[in-house]
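Notes taken during the Thursday session

The instructor put the following on the board and asked us to keep it in front of us for the whole hour. The protein is CBS domain-containing protein. We were told not to look anything up and to reason only from what is written here. First, the residues (430 in total):
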Amino acid sequence: MTKHEQIIKHIEVLKVGSKISVRQIAKDLSVSEGTAYRAIKDAENRGIVSTMERIGTIRIEKKTREAIENLTFAEIVKIIDGQLIGGRTGLHKSLSRFAIGAMEQEDVTKYLGENTLLIVGNRENIQQLALEKGSAVLVTGGFAVSDSIRQLADQKGLPILSTSHDTFAVANIINRALYDQLIKQEVLTVAEILIPVSETNVLYENDTVGDWKALSHSSGHTRFPVLDDQNRAYGIVTNKDIIDLDNSMKIKRIMTKNPITVNLSSTIATCAHVMIWEGIELLPVVSKNHRLIGIVTREDVLRAMQSIERQPQIGHTLNDQVLKQMKFGDDITIRVTPQMSNQLGTMSKSVFVAIIEEATKHLLKRERRGEALIESLNIYFLKTVPIDTVLTISCEMLDLGRKFAKMEVTIHSEEEIVSKAMLMCQLIEA
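Then, after some discussion, the predicted structure tokens were revealed:
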């Protein structure tokens, strides 16, 4: 086990909420501060530590997919550009709702409880009540808190935060952040499907063609990431690279160097796009310092995208709102709602794009062509469209191949053309 891996293992067994410092890690494990620093950054990439201004680096609980819709109090500190006043050991805890303490004390009590954040001004009695009921506290307006409140927060392990924003502004910020998290929950990322490095067959730069053949025979695979002596992704080698070569030939002489890689937060759609466009079957997953975390394969990516199509979506993105209003028949129609308008009361350009995307998906599904990635899109905005206008969308397939489709989309208001678009799509088929 390398020193880097030893540090990661050491961090993983630390108690959640523990403070972590480069100097202490270096001292405890007898490593250089440079090695400790790089390992702590890697741990942050893996989601097991978090670094915050004026707070430092702390051990946090890695969020599961089931908990991704909930923000931690550590994330709230960053979102509101706030400060931690007390209760540091509770920063890793998450909130599922927040309440505003602008009401009588007996009414406030109804909204307090575990995983709740109470937003309040300089009302010490309400601050104390919230902590006693198991709720974290966010003090707005930049007000200070008393020592007794700070001590109570430390005792309960419940964060008490401070921000210069007023209550209305900070409530909007947090509400938006919670909404964004809800949408993110439905977005599949590489972290959900990767084959971890512990289960990944790899070769090293000084291995030989003979080693490739032995590994291919034992694993049944023909494509492997190639690592350097620091376990960084250095290249990719496939069966095409070793045809008719001597068994003693070094892998580093025949591999494809500087492979295309992705990280844990890369979306499945991004992987599909890269694999189709570049014609590759395997993507190494790396950390920020390029160490191999695992791999994703074309088969896993396509299976994940098919799975998404079979699941109900709970997020209400712009495309979701547009799709709910679209009616599909011989023609596609949609009524422009206030939510689709800009500040001038006319349909926003982003809604035009969403309508075109959804109409394109509908046509390709009707042609039984599966999913598609839009490669290029040229839109001409010819007329403004006011609220409550009923639009008719027509799609024409100009060219359809095995991997690409070229289409024209026209949007009418009554007999008048309000927008036209030309687009090129990549077709995704299992």
